[in-house]
Amino acid sequence: MLFGPDGAAFSPTHTRKGGKLYRYYVSQTVLKHGAGSCPVGRVPAGEIEAAVINQFRVVFRQPEIVAGTWKAARAQDGDITEADARAALQQLDPLWDELFPAEQARIVALLIERVDIGAEGLDIRLRVDGLHGLARELPAGDMGAAA
């Protein structure tokens, strides 16, 4: 889901140093051609994941995103209402921290198509079809919150 400025995918990996685990994502370009072959060769996993989630949460609070997402989702499925889209997005933010990590990962995969990382920052491409599924799940309380 994470891609560099050259279009190459990033892969998760890790290393241990002094008994501590360090997770990061590395560009396929770097893996194939060595260090220096990509301007963004490696990124710390925790930092990039937090940045994506923070941007994701901010975006879903914006009224114009709700309206635009609803219109796009409605084009794919006429049954979704603007109220469905608004409810799904509004419920997601306060619930996020209560969800199990596996459920957070499932929602990210459902709603985010691609994340492009570059020297200027992140560009997140959303999945409109994923919003429809989320809009149907949230009111029904089907998401797995931690107890």
Distance between the termini: 29 Å
Number of strands: 6
Helix content: 40-55%
Question: How many DSSP H or I helices?
Answer: 6
Order of strands, main sheet, comes to 1-5-6
Mean pLDDT: 79
Structural commentary:
- The protein has 147 residues and is an alpha+beta fold.
- The protein has a domain at 44-140.
- The protein has six helices and six strands.
- The strands form two sheets. Strands 1-5-6 form a three-stranded mixed β-sheet. A three-stranded antiparallel β-sheet has the order 2-3-4.
- Helix 3 packs across helix 4, helix 3 (63-76) crosses helix 6 and helix 4 packs across helix 6 (128-140).
- The longest helix has 15 residues, at 45-59.
- It is elongated, with a radius of gyration of 17 Å.
- Residues 140-147 have low confidence and may be disordered.
Task: List the main descriptive attributes of the protein structure presented here.
147 residues; alpha+beta; 3-stranded mixed sheet; 3-stranded antiparallel sheet; 6 strands; disordered C terminus
